[in-house]
TrEMBL record:
Reactions mediated catalytically: ATP-independent breakage of single-stranded DNA, followed by passage and rejoining
Catalytic residues as annotated in Swiss-Prot or TrEMBL: 316
Enzyme class: isomerase
Region: Interaction with DNA, residue numbers: 188-193
Composition bias, Basic and acidic residues: 358-370
Stretches that traverse the bilayer: none
An example Gene Ontology CC term for this record: chromosome
Domain of life: Archaea
Family label: Belongs to the type IA topoisomerase family.
Region (Disordered): 358-381, 799-829
Identification of the protein by name: DNA topoisomerase 1
Keywords of the record: DNA-binding, Isomerase, Magnesium, Metal-binding, Repeat, Topoisomerase, Zinc, Zinc-finger
Source organism of the structure: Halorhabdus utahensis (strain DSM 12940 / JCM 11049 / AX-2)
Site (Interaction with DNA) location in chain: 48, 160, 164, 318, 505
Amino acid sequence: MRLIVTEKDNAARRIAEILSDDSASGERRNGVNVYKWGGQRVVGLSGHVVGVDFPPEYAEWRDVEPAELIDADVVTTPTRENIVATLRSLARKADEVVIATDYDREGELIGKEAYELIREETDAPVERVRFSSITEREVQKAFENPDEIDFDLAAAGEARQIVDLIWGAALTRFLSLSAKQLGNDFISVGRVQSPTLKLIVDREREIEAFDPDDYWEILADLAKDGQGFEAQYFYDDDGSEAERVWDEAAAEAAYADLSESGTATVTEVRRRTRTDDPPAPFNTTAFISAASSLGYSAQRAMSLAEELYTDGYLTYPRTDNTVYPDDLDPEELLGAFEGSYEFGDDAASLLDQDEIEPTRGETESTDHPPIHPTGELPDRDEVGADAWEIYELVVRRFFATVAEPATWAHLRVVAEAAGRSLKANGKRLLEEGYHAVYPYSSAGETFVPEVSEGDKLSIDAVELEAKQTQPPRRYGQSRLIQHMEEMGIGTKATRHNIVEKLYDRGYVEDDPPRPTKLAEAVVSAAEEYADHVVSEEMTAQLEADMTAIAEGEATLEEVTAESREMLGEIFEELRESRTEIGEFLQESLKADRTLGPCPECGEDLLVRRSRQGSYFVGCDGFPECRFTLPLPSTGEPQVTDETCEDHDLRHVKMLAGRDTFVHGCPRCKAEAADESEDEVIGHCPECGDSAAPEGQRNEGGEAAEGEGGKLAIKHLRSGSRLVGCTRYPDCDYSLPLPRRGEIVVTDERCEDHDLPHIEIHDGDDDDPWELGCPICNYEEFQARNAVENLEDLDGVGPATAEKLQDAGVADPEDLHEVDPDAVAGEVQGVSADRIREWQDELAA
DNA sequence: GCAAGGTC
């Protein structure tokens, strides 16, 4: 039997299809897909199935000096046991093995890891094939010319693993132990995350140190024959054109001159035609950046693209490549969109072009093509709105890369008035080119009328604007990822996760990411004692070392020994400053939790956590001062940089995924609740007059008048509002009300529940939210939630969600109890296997 | 409970 090993299941399936001429069948072993035909088996790994770590005796942080990790053994152990077991059992029956992992450094290492596992089971020959994309031609050619594993290249990857582990673990443990931050709140450091964090912190330092300068700009409304346009004052500043006037008196003088002249004379007209080339094919970074201008975070964009990839609609989304492979036939791919409702017209117009020549970016790599549609079209309702928007972006990007350039007519006009110069730059689209199929990049025109030198223009208005220079802007997530790519840190598959990691570690908050005090302290400490780990040089040096290993000019042992020595020197310095560093980190951690002064004792109010795990605001003066304020029960509190003017306390935001909200000043919230009175709106349906519990009922089956609970609108000190029973805590019946907006009880009544309708007036808008009867509203809310929960399932859109509900699955929870075959029979487009996958996922 | 790199 011949065993073929790929890096992932998707690749295994496609290679089996190609090599078997579509006759392969799949089976599941240990939860791993194995494709078979004749004497052949193909199995896909899941990237690395083994990982490096220290031996177990180093596991307990408190029992090990971090510096001991520097010379500790590094061992490789299976991390994906089921895949390893399947690989082993397949290997035992193989008399020939082919490694077909991705064609890049990490792929070589993953292949070598598989090789080592296989060698423990068999002496069968092991070959290596390399192909630059999984297409019939490439794959056939690769299998006809098999090669050998490049152990040097794999060793380069191993060296990286070892260096990253030792530096990351030793420094992470050192900082965490010195600040006594163990458990979930450890303080991490790493070759990629720390330089990325420094980038953010450095930018924040620039912002904080920024000292704005005043300047003035003068704008004028000009017109020729009634056609108005805007022009800007400029002057000659040592040979270059300047618009900003730094001196107020000079600005006012120019403004006065221009205001007093009724006309200006055209002194210069310059026309130029510019081509605006279509963009290059999408690599991961460019894709994330385009998705970010549609409002998607890096993480969200990637997870949608991964879903579309797994479902077969897009190619692999993790790629650096910006050049389509030779075997991509643009005409054929455009043809796949011809009949489509959304894309048909655009595809047809592109096919009408005289020539189709895709654009090329700068990087051509061997593992995966640029991200493009496969030609298989998803059902718009089925994939959901977000996935569709991402899909359309990728389709249109592909369209743009095969479209014609756009051309623009540029018109620059300079006019003089009272010795002062005004300029206007016009821009008109001559040939729409790729903009016709790619609406995401700006194609805005600026109107300037046709004028000739010597023409008189009227000056209709002049405006003097006082401005200030602005600090640099924070990096957005996608800008950060671009920066990482430029610095050569991280990879296509990890950069967006690194940004996410900075959020998880409490190093950055909000979007665009803003560093916490902890982040500033970690970066400062690293800069002082371990500068190497926060610099991009560490990666640059590692890359050079890896190249040397791959080319046989150095060995893994030499490179890791040198790296260990360097880290050892760093620890010599660190040892002496341990307490100092620990205190510094602890202070910064406290600063991130500090709201402001306690109204009772003047010490700091801090976000704290009770023994039960709930958050509240407490005083740093505890136990002498017992002042507290409650916080909402949902989400993780985050102290924002906004401050309440009344109480000098920073506002709190509650992070809870989609349900994240700004709580505001906790003292304002508590005081507002103290001042409000409960407003009774009806009887409690659980214990009210018409539904009293057994013991309290009178002969008529009702509670005695006045004894039953009433429903009232209540304001809690934590900021929540609800319709709840007046007999609380004896009766805990309650219905949620929105956190924001003024609650207004109307005269309209719900006949079913005998309750008034409620409206929410938010801000000054005169179009209130008609919430209606609170009971009806809550029931609808629950039903809506159920549909949304269903849509969270992989491959379920609004249409399928509805069908699932019709089939008795109102909520994902119901899936536990259903018979997959029965439901699959009732719901078109959902297989029993899919349902089993959902069940497995929910169980996990 | 550490990193970064694969992958889901």
